[in-house]
Every structure is written in C-alpha cells, then in structure tokens.
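queue> pop job 88
queue> type: inverse folding (structure -> sequence)
queue> payload:
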C-alpha cells in the first residue's frame, strides 16, 4: 500500500462523520432529554477530526504520486490542499465544541441549554460544508465526471478527452 492508497482509504471518514453528526445534533437540539444524542454527535465530530488528520498525513505522499499521472493538474492538488487545511480548522473547532458540550452535560443534572447545542450544531454544519468543499476539490483531481469543463490539455486524442467522451456516451445511453 502506498500513500495514495492510504489517502483513498481514509479521506471519506471526515466527510461522512461530519455529515452524520449534523442530523444527530439536530435531534439533540429538539430532544434535549436524550442526552446520548449530544455524546453521539460529539463522538462523530471527534472521529471526523481524527480522520481528517489521517487524510492530511497521507495527503502529501498521495500528491507526490498523483502529480506524476498524465492529465493531473498541480493547481487542482493545491486547491484541494488549501481547502483541506481550512476544513481541518473547522473540524478542530467543531470537535472541541462537541467535547466541551459533553463535558458540560456530564456535570449537569439537567439537559444542556438549547444555545449550547445550537452552537455545536452550527459549527458542525460549517464543518460538514468545509469537508464537502475540500472533498469536491479532491475528487476533481482524478474524476472527470465532476468537472464542469474539459481540461485545456485534453486534446481530441488524449486519454482525458477519451474519458470525457466515454462518460458522455454512457450518460446519453
């Protein structure tokens, strides 16, 4: 297994964990008496941060491998790296807020205030959006089907143009 393979194995963890945390925290906001929902949402946010750390750790090695593949643009890799750095910042804030909320909830005899859970939920939504934005940039590195336009270097006989054409042909069928 190389760094690119490792990156592919872990890069969906922070996206999925952050997306799953949002509805669970929304339920925690609506059903404050079910204290385990806040814990579950916070656990997902922490899991997402850990996954983001692993994806970042494997990302540099993956970039070195992938940038040697014909048709891969260095600009796409740099955009993905920048967005991933921003997403990790949001993941850290959301995970910290979740851990603080759980700590407060454990110490209290009554459920947390709606404002505390709402603050964690807002950070979780921002985190999920940032993770999705970073993931989209990562997908554009190799997935021609999510690019809005063909590459400038995609000549009619290039492998990139053939992949685009085959995708269009499949979509028409």
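queue> result:
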């Amino acid at each position: 297994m190389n760094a690119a393979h490792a990156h592919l194995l872990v890069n969906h963890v922070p996206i999925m964990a952050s997306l799953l945390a949002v509805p669970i925290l929304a339920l925690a906001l609506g059903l404050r008496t079910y204290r385990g929902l806040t814990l579950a949402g916070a656990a997902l946010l922490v899991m997402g941060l850990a996954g983001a750390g692993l994806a970042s750790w494997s990302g540099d090695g993956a970039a070195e491998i992938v940038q040697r593949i014909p048709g891969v643009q260095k600009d796409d890799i740099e955009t993905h790296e920048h967005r991933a750095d921003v997403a990790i910042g949001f993941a850290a804030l959301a995970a910290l807020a979740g851990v603080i909320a759980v700590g407060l909830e454990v110490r209290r005899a009554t459920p947390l205030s709606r404002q505390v859970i709402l603050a964690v939920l807002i950070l979780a939504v921002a985190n999920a959006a940032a993770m999705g934005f970073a993931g989209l940039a990562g997908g554009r590195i190799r997935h021609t089907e999510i690019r809005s336009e063909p590459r400038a270097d995609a000549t009619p006989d290039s492998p990139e143009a053939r992949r685009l054409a085959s995708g269009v042909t499949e979509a028409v069928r």
